[in-house]
Design a protein that fits this description.
- This protein is of the alpha/beta class and 192 residues long.
- Helix 4 (110-123) links the parallel strand 7 and strand 8 (128-131).
- Helix content is 29%, strand content 30%.
- The strands form 2 sheets. Strands 1, 2, 3, 4, 5 and 11 form a 6-stranded mixed sheet that branches. A 5-stranded mixed sheet has the order 8-7-9-6-10.
- It has 2 domains: 3-88 and 181-190, Periplasmic binding protein-like II (D-Maltodextrin-Binding Protein, domain 2, 3-Layer(aba) Sandwich), CATH 3.40.190; 91-173, Periplasmic binding protein-like II (D-Maltodextrin-Binding Protein, domain 2, 3-Layer(aba) Sandwich), CATH 3.40.190.10.
- The chain is built from 6 helices and 11 strands.
Length: 192
Amino acid sequence: MPIRIGVQGGAGSFNDEAVKFYAQTRQVSSYEVVYLHTSAAVLAALAAKQINYGQFALYNSRGGVVEETMEAIGPNRFLVVDWYAIPVAHHLICRQEVDLAGIKTIMTHPQVISQCRETLRKRYPHLHFIQGEGDMIDPARVAVALHNGDIPLSVATLGCRSMAPAHGLKIIDSDLQDDTSNETTFLLVSGL
């Protein structure tokens, strides 16, 4: 039976990339990814024994500590099993039928905005930047909403290259992170 790893992001997210990195480098061949979108949801699923392990972003070399994660881990008890870092490059992602002129708002995780702030100010000073609420804090969840038409066409998100094809979307600009050596550290945790 495969181990179940709950991750902070959705399909095509950096958490998705990180769990694949973990499995490949630690030679884990039988696992199932459970997309939980937030660090709080990962820790709740771990406490309820719905997953064997949880994974979430802890720290980014440009943006610092991931506040969402820090807020979630405070009241929870768990064991740190492993930690690992992956390179992170951000891409502007939107619906297939939208061009750059049609984008008015970028909705993404606040950590992503902090990693891309200077580049976004230079390239897109006219755009409005917002963070999603609840599960929509996850750029992959925003990508699902874009694909399903649940949010306006004028909204784009920032995320991992693999997020666009995972949700039938397109990339309209790439490498928006302020630091070309940008990387994020992830924790793999288990229950007590």
